[in-house]
TrEMBL record:
<dbReference type="Pfam" id="PF00933">
    <property type="entry name" value="Glyco_hydro_3"/>
</dbReference>
<dbReference type="InterPro" id="IPR017853">
    <property type="entry name" value="GH"/>
</dbReference>
<dbReference type="InterPro" id="IPR036881">
    <property type="entry name" value="Glyco_hydro_3_C_sf"/>
</dbReference>
<dbReference type="InterPro" id="IPR036962">
    <property type="entry name" value="Glyco_hydro_3_N_sf"/>
</dbReference>
<feature type="signal peptide">
    <location>
        <begin position="1"/>
        <end position="22"/>
    </location>
</feature>
<dbReference type="Pfam" id="PF01915">
    <property type="entry name" value="Glyco_hydro_3_C"/>
</dbReference>
<feature type="domain" description="Glycoside hydrolase family 3 C-terminal">
    <location>
        <begin position="406"/>
        <end position="599"/>
    </location>
</feature>
<protein>
    <submittedName>
        <fullName>Uncharacterized protein</fullName>
    </submittedName>
</protein>
<dbReference type="InterPro" id="IPR001764">
    <property type="entry name" value="Glyco_hydro_3_N"/>
</dbReference>
<dbReference type="InterPro" id="IPR002772">
    <property type="entry name" value="Glyco_hydro_3_C"/>
</dbReference>
<dbReference type="InterPro" id="IPR051915">
    <property type="entry name" value="Cellulose_Degrad_GH3"/>
</dbReference>
<keyword id="KW-0732">Signal</keyword>
<keyword id="KW-0326">Glycosidase</keyword>
<feature type="domain" description="Glycoside hydrolase family 3 N-terminal">
    <location>
        <begin position="46"/>
        <end position="369"/>
    </location>
</feature>
<keyword id="KW-0378">Hydrolase</keyword>
């Protein structure tokens, strides 16, 4: 072999170094610290690429091409925005990966982040486990958070818009069921769900810095910042009138706890504080959340949240962008008219109405979260997590949560003559009511009637009549009756209600049944309702809240396989004109006070 002259070797070496350097990018190196990766990537980005990162669009208008063309940073499934009815988890994974491939084909290959509402389980997805709603105050929040995270990952999604840490101060609010309690202390304790969703934060973590344990966890979003549960008369998205001290002591503390637990994102509330829209509140978003609480994750708007800064919504989108981005919102849930948002923001930055430093702050935060959660290293999902969706283990956990969330409000005429637990063996029992055998009212899964049939002794005859007349009840010799009534399903503004009466035919079913047979009334409601007028007729009363898919948990406790242990996370009022009335108020005259709940012992031989 001929010997090459030395200079040839040197030349070859220089070329090799240059080639390697062209390949090596700090931001693509997982061994580099996150701060260096963010800085490196930000320095490579054009204004167009930065604004794309700040844009979140709904899956309905998303495609690989749109993601690529506009450098879109995030895609979401809005409520009910699903690939197809009863879509399989494989379909979900393929859809998310399809969008991701668009993002990975951009110049800088920045992966997009897919987000979805998963507030009591993975509730948009067919066959997912639905846990009791937050009002039911489960004792096992961290485990429920971890299970929800697995089910969300099963569909290829790494980001859940949960938990809702609203402190609902007035049950007339249609979203009161999304709130854990009227008491800020309880809501603070429930931020454990952040650790369930994102994983446990290591002890040496820096306060305020987003954290995500790994691929079995999901990015969380504490919402809705701030004061969403304090609006006048519980009107959805309305005005929270409170002093700064009132706001900070009731509605803010759970944000502090969530940030300590490493929550990666915070979603802004549609509501106003003392007349100022939260989506335009720079003092609270930038001043308090980012500067005082030192939150280092990103702030996301709610759906069309900046549009609603003006009244009517979208009346002046230029103003909305200035006010919303200027207030400190980092990612905008646009979600449809992305070109209008991108063009608007671009021109506002170019014309110096919004400083470049604000854009860089937003993109730094978004990239920090994406690096922290390992999205650059694991942008694509596979099918390996599908087995977790609606798994037996999660259903058992949900059933346990149902048992623990039931609150026993009345049990017989006196403590020495309890009606519950019911005997499993009886000749004939009546199950009645609009909510006994209706998975729509209950939110899917096993109905309460099915649970009762599975629990009683095989010789016990179970008669079901949704709305029996009093003659039918009298003429049959029932040992006892179980009446399951409550509110119809609702969400958001549709749930606002100023009378909180038990909807018809609930009251007449109670009267017809309880007049002639010993009866247990089980309420399926998202909040306390007017029950005082019927209380004397009712022998035993159970608040079951919104139990989700595992209705069997109700029968588990009614028939004594487990005891009642749940306590009220809300004050149960006598009449609506008492509202708002919360624990700690000067004038406090409830039907059942906050923290109330009778107990029973499990029965071994029943
Ligand atoms: C609150 O609701 C009232 C009545 O619908 C409405 O006129 C008002 O604009 C709302 N306030 C806010 C801040 O949304
Ligand atoms: C919209 O808002 C911008 C920014 O505040 C303002 O300059 C403009 O006059 C407004 N347009 C209308 C039609 O009110
Ligand atoms: C109570 O309010 C709800 C919601 O506004 C309404 O649909 C219902 O008819 C009202 N019920 C009564 C008895 O007024």
């Amino acid at each position: 072999m001929a010997k090459a002259p030395l200079f040839i070797w040197i030349l070859a070496y220089i070329c090799w170094i240059a080639a390697a350097n062209a390949e090596y990018k700090i931001y693509q190196d997982p061994k580099q610290p996150t701060s260096k990766r963010v800085k490196d990537l930000l320095s490579r980005m054009t204004l167009e690429e930065k604004i794309g990162q700040m844009t979140q669009i709904d899956r309905l208008v998303a495609s690989a091409d749109v993601l690529k063309k506009y450098n879109i940073g995030s895609v979401l499934s809005g409520g009910g925005s699903i690939p197809s009815p009863k879509a399989s988890p494989e379909t979900w994974v393929d859809m998310v990966n399809g969008f991701q491939k668009g993002s990975l084909s951009t110049r800088l290959k920045i992966p997009m982040l897919y987000g979805i509402d998963a507030v009591h389980g993975h509730n948009n997805v067919y066959k997912a486990t639905i846990f009791p709603h937050n009002v039911g105050l489960g004792a096992s929040r961290q485990r429920i958070g971890a299970a929800t995270a697995l089910e969300v990952r099963a569909t290829g999604i790494p980001y859940a818009f949960a938990p809702c840490i609203a402190v609902c101060r007035d049950p007339r609010w249609g979203r009161c069921y999304e709130s854990y309690s009227e008491d800020p202390k309880v809501v603070r304790a429930m931020t454990e769900i952040v650790s369930g969703l994102q994983g446990d934060i290591p002890a040496n973590s820096r306060k305020g810095v987003p954290f995500l344990a790994g691929q079995k966890n999901v990015l969380a979003s504490a919402k809705h910042f701030v004061g969403d549960g304090g609006t006048t008369k519980g009107m959805n998205e309305n005005n929270t009138v409170a002093s700064r001290h009132g706001l900070l002591s009731i509605h803010m503390p759970a944000y502090h706890d969530s940030i300590i637990k490493g929550v990666g994102t915070v979603m802004v509330s549609y509501s106003s504080w003392n007349g100022v829209k939260m989506h335009a509140n720079r003092d609270l978003i930038t001043g308090y959340l980012k500067n005082t609480l030192r939150f280092r994750g990103f702030v996301i708007s709610d759906w069309e949240g900046i549009d609603r800064i003006t009244s009517p919504p979208h009346a002046n989108y230029t103003y909305s962008i200035i006010a919303g981005v200027g207030a400190g919102i980092d990612m905008i849930m646009v979600p449809y008219k992305y070109a209008e948002f991108i063009d608007g923001l671009t021109s506002l930055v170019k014309n110096k109405f919004i400083p470049m430093s604000r854009i860089d702050d937003a993109v730094t935060r978004i990239l920090r979260v994406k690096f922290t959660m390992g999205l650059f290293e694991h942008p694509l999902a596979d099918y390996s997590m599908i087995k977790h969706l609606g798994s037996q283990e999660h259903r058992e956990l949900a059933r346990e949560a149902v048992r623990k969330t039931l609150v026993l409000l009345k049990n017989g005429e006196s403590a020495d003559k309890p009606l519950l637990p019911l005997p499993k063996k009886a000749s004939k029992i009546l199950v009645a009511g609009t909510h006994a055998d209706n998975i729509g009212n209950q939110c899917g899964g096993t109905t309460i009637l099915t649970g009762i049939k599975k629990t009683v002794h095989p010789q016990t005859e179970v008669v079901f009549s949704e709305n029996p007349d009093s003659g039918f009840v009298k003429s049959n010799k029932f040992s006892h009756a179980i009446v399951v009534v409550g509110e119809p399903p609702y969400s958001e503004t549709f749930g606002d209600n100023t009378n909180l009466t038990l909807p018809d035919p609930g009251p007449s079913i109670i009267t017809n049944v309880c007049a002639s047979v010993k009866c247990v009334v089980v309420l399926i409601t998202g909040r306390p309702v007017v029950i005082q007028p019927y209380l004397a007729q009712i022998d035993a009363l159970v608040a079951a809240w919104l139990p989700g898919t595992e209705g069997q948990g109700v029968a588990d406790v009614l028939f004594g396989d487990y005891g009642f242990t749940g306590k009220l996370s809300r004050t149960w009022f006598k009449t609506v004109d008492q509202l708002p009335m919360n624990v700690g108020d000067k004038h406090y005259d409830p039907l059942f006070p906050f923290g109330f709940g009778l107990t029973t012992k499990p029965v071994t031989a029943n």
